[in-house]
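User: Once you have settled down, look closely at the record that follows, taking as long as you need, and be ready to discuss the fold:
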Amino acid sequence: MQFSASSRAIFVALTLTFLFGVLPACARQSQDPAGLQISPSVEQPAPSATDGPQSDQKLATRISGKVVDPSGVGVAAAQVRLTGENPSLNQQVSTADDGQFVFTNVAPGAFHLTITAAAFAPQEFSGNVRPGESYAVPQIALPIASLVTEVRVVPPSLHEEAEAEINEELKQRPLGFIPNFYVTYVADAAPLSPRQKFKLAWKQMVDPVTFGLTGAIAGIQQAQNDFSGFGQGAQGYAKRYGAAYADDATGTLIGSAILPSLFKQDPRYFYKGTGSKRSRVLYAIATSVICKGDNGHWQANYSGILGGLAAGGISNLYYPAKDRNGAALTFENALIGIGATAAANILQEFVIRKLTPNLPNHDPSTGSKPLNQIGKMFTSLIHEGD
């Protein structure tokens, strides 16, 4: 096709207009095959490393160290506790066989280590770890724990004290063989339990010397033909021996064990050993009718007096009928028994102790003070003799 000059000029103008007008507009806005507009993408800036509220909470890598004994050998199974500003992040680990320990994911900031192990004294260490830091704790040496021995002194009970005193009394033998179990040289001796009172009575009743003395008494009675209803010969001697032993056994059992347990009285003689001779004689006589109670107070000796009466009444069961003089003789014998006890107490105060070997050294001047009325009357009587 041929165009005129004017036509070519119009065609060039339209072409330029299209190139410089329509195409740039199409370049700025295009459509996808579905007819949707596509906007050009805008690149977002990368987030800053310092943005965000948790940036200052970044965890450190780890804290490590080694626990050794005084010689430098690693301590295995030692407990290492890590504490910091945030209690929820506290940790605890055990050391390995070589003493090494490691904490991971530790919050940055100040921290504190507490190290404990059996047989060692605890140690502590404090430090400060920065974010991202791997902190090496200096070697921690645990000193050997000092041995602490606790000594608790528990005073013995009254029962134990009394038992120890009884064991001493059972060794008291004047001239080395005569039993003298019912005397105590401890002024404030512990009270006896009922079982201990029966123990003393039993030891007295079965002592070989008791059997020997009973045999001698029976022999003297047979020689004098006392209690003639028993007859003579071996049969008469056996009856006298049995009666004499029964007298001693019933008197000891009732007067020194049964009644003292019921009345809570002490059947022993409490050696005085101090003061003038007159005061000691008065004391010895008085203690034939009064005694110490288990409470430490002086009181009427119901046990000894009633025990003598009971033993005398029982003896009427086995002595010959013609030798039984009824209640009058029983009371008479009881009074004689009180006098014999007073005489024996005087011997205890001045003679028997000197004849008894290996006695423990007790101070008779210390003892419990009598507090009741009978005790006050008794001590008043004794002091008047000083």
